[in-house]
Amino acid sequence: MNRKLTITIDDALAHEAERLARSRGLSLSSLIDTSLRETLANDSPTVATRWRGRFRPAERDDPRYEALARKYL
User: Fold this and answer.
1) Can you tell me the mean pLDDT for 34-58?
2) CA dist., res. 41 & res. 60, Å (int)
3) I need a surface site. Which of 17, 25, 51, 69 has the fewest CB within 10 A?
């Protein structure tokens, strides 16, 4: 089922997108639909998301913590 959607984009971008769609023999809606599908299919988690929760904070009596605290604090 298709859904009608209103978006706001820069006028120059809209003209370029229309030109690109025309050169590919597509409607602007079809070009946007295809682009969004490709983006969502290739979307992978960020490095931060993949590693979140996998590290333990250093204990304050850890010599590495002391060295880093001297260097950065």
Assistant:
1) 84
2) 43
3) 25
| Rounded CA separation 35/51 (Å) | 28
User: Rounded to whole angstroms, how far apart are CA atoms 42 and 28?
Assistant: 21
Distance CA 17, CA 33 (A): 12
CA pair distance 65, 60, nearest whole angstrom: 6
Which range of 7-11, 50-54, 57-61, 67-71 scores highest in mean pLDDT? It is: 7-11
SS3 1: coil
Query: By the 8 A CB rule, do 64 and 58 touch?
Result: yes
60, exposed or middle or buried, with CB in 10 Å at 0-12, 13-18, 19+? exposed
Distance CA(18)–CA(29), nearest Å, equals: 9
